[in-house]
Write a sequence for this structure.
């Protein structure tokens, strides 16, 4: 199975400041047949179901503010929040869709300082 | 806009069968893969498996021997059955859609159903 390792586990942030979450994969998530990188990001806000933020490395889901961005290549990926807002608190997960079984990172809890 | 509504028994005894159903409202049922994901209390997310409108499935290997997913296209519903549950199967179970033709990630998600396995 592909193992995704997220760091940090916990991320205290100050509103208005940037934030960054890392996701490292045990193998490349670049699909050789179509050139896409099958790494998504989800956020689970308190008391809610997870929701899609970023898909295939860097595409923002519908309605996601442009302060969220995904980047990286091969095995190293980053979710960046350019300026954190109070509503961004929650647990962020990366997920690989390259091969079965699909797997998630362990999650990063973003909280306001 | 696709919306998912799920239901099923919330309290089971060990060795019983977990059964959950998810109804799909809106959108094209056949354009999606239908997925189940679970989250044990205080833990992360675990992909359980997926099924498409033709009944083609992919399962989590560790659950495969106990797992059955099915679809009812006439009712626009899909279901999960997990046999011989133990306390380790206690989790919130989510039904999820993935629109394969657009390949835009997992969206939408159902509201989640807490399933507790306890004697």
């Amino acid at each position: 199975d592909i193992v995704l390792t997220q760091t940090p586990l916990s991320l205290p942030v100050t509103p208005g400041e940037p934030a960054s979450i890392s996701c490292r994969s045990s193998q490349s998530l670049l699909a050789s047949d179509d050139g896409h990188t099958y790494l998504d990001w989800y956020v689970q806000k308190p008391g809610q179901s997870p929701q899609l933020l970023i898909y295939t490395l860097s595409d923002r889901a519908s309605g996601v503010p442009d302060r969220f961005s995904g980047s990286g290549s091969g095995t190293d990926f980053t979710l960046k929040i350019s300026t954190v807002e109070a509503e961004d608190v929650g647990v962020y997960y990366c997920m690989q869709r390259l091969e079965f079984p699909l797997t998630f990172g362990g999650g990063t809890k973003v909280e306001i300082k | 806009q696709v919306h998912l509504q799920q239901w099923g028994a919330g309290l089971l005894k060990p060795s019983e069968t977990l059964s959950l159903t998810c109804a799909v409202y809106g959108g094209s049922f056949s354009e999606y893969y239908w997925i189940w994901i679970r989250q044990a209390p205080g833990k992360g997310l675990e992909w359980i498996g997926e099924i498409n409108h033709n009944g083609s499935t992919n399962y989590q290997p560790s659950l495969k021997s106990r797992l059955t997913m099915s679809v009812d296209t006439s009712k626009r519903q899909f279901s999960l059955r997990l046999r011989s549950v133990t306390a380790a199967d206690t989790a919130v179970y989510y039904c999820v859609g993935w629109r394969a033709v657009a390949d835009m990630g997992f969206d939408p998600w159902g509201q989640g159903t807490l399933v507790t396995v306890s004697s």
